[in-house]
Amino acid sequence: MSRPTILGYVRPDGKVGIRNYLLVMSTVICSSFVARRIADQVQGAVAIENPFGCGQLEPDLEITKRTLIGMAKNPNVGGVLVVGLGCEQIQADELVREIEKTGKPVEKVVVQEVDGGTPAAIERGVTLLRRMAEEVLSQRPEEVDISNLVMGVECGGSDATSGLAANPVVGYASDKLVDLGGTVILSETPEMIGAEEILARRAVSREVGDKIIKAVKKWINLAASYGVDLVGTQPSPGNIAGGLSTIEEKSLGAIIKGGSRPIQGFVDYAEEVRGKGLWIMDTPGYDIMSVVGMVAGGATLVVFTTGRGTPTGNPITPVIKVTANPYTAKKMRENIDFDASTVTLGQETIEQAGERLFKLIIDVARGKPTRAELLGFREFVIHKIIPSF
Length: 389
What we know:
Layout: E1 5-10, E2 16-17, E3 21-26, H1 32-40, E4 45-48, H2 58-73, E5 77-84, H3 92-99, E6 106-110, H4 117-136, E7 142-145, E8 150-155, H5 160-179, E9 183-186, H6 196-201, H7 206-225, H8 237-241, H9 247-255, E10 263-267, E11 277-281, H10 287-296, E12 301-305, E13 319-323, H11 326-331, E14 338-339, H12 341-344, H13 350-365, H14 371-375
Parallel strand pairs: 3-4, 3-5, 5-6, 8-9, 8-12, 9-11, 10-11, 12-13, 13-14
Antiparallel strand pairs: 1-2, 1-7
Helix pairs in contact: 1-4, 2-10, 5-9, 5-13
């Protein structure tokens, strides 16, 4: 049997994307309006409106910077326009220098440097982006091996069916992708509480296992430093209403979506994943932040399970929505890509549903749009750990 292939855009640095976006990215919230107006006027362009970029202490500033650079470097992006204000902490030139290392086209517009303010900056940006579009959007995808796919896995709005059926189905697909030489990213460290020892035992080295244990403890201690018992905040009210009783129960169900293969490495939020196989990224349990972190780390596709239903998408990476709750599958049918309630109802095995899901993953990696893409869901929020000053 021949190996599956996907349709990919091979970038100058050799990485492969499954979408071909022009990314307009603001360095700071003060230039977000300009970035959005520029993107709205050019076909194939999407805007990332950065809510931070100034007034941040060093740890959060580094996270913001790393996330912006990672989003721009993601191979689903063919070209980048950086839009700055001029006086912010994160300067446009700094981002441009890092993005240029990929070899993809990158330009900048700095509002305070353009004669005429924001209207002139918008006009200048549209001109630059349209020129870039002529080069980037003319690129055609080519057949490439599925081992080039980097898949993030996420769950949100979980209920009892998530851990019982949806996440195991995704786990089956994760194992299959890893076995074919691809990459899978598992995230949401706070939702590993109670399951961290299980994950550590699957690590390829003691060093990787220790990182997993320390990361979970870090989140517990961080919350405690603010007088908050993190264990007491999970499961969420929606999780409880959906049948989850403890954070350990939620965690054991959540980690299954990463499959069962050895854990190759552990990376920080939005840090680039530089290897094949199964990896863990240190992200918060907040779905949108977690997805953004994985995409900034290189995920070109995300599979997102939801028991109660959530419409979340991403500006540059397709998000496949999976539910194993038959009521959610029916009520939110316009948001759900894959119905795994056949497993919950005993009509299909995890393996059978996993094969169907894997086929959908290949279809999306060959250009089929997800519901979130069709409906225009492009949420973007960056993780931060310190209040702004």
